[in-house]
Predict the 3D structure of the following.
Amino acid sequence: MLELRSNCECCDKDLGPNSDARICTFECTFCVDCAEGTLGDVCPNCGGNFEKRPIRPAALLEKFPASTKRVFNPKLKNPD
């Protein structure tokens, strides 16, 4: 089951469970702006591509909540 991580790893933008987010096969999670713009549709962690993260139906969020774990790497946005 997907974790539905709560933020963009690049800019730290909040990404709720129904947000338009992008993930790679390792579930690295990014907002659309960072995935398509800053990162050029290539995951900086694994080199893979991104796909649209599925939406978990609201009726299942109580039983299977989104993750509260935050992953953030500010060096992704500003590699200097």
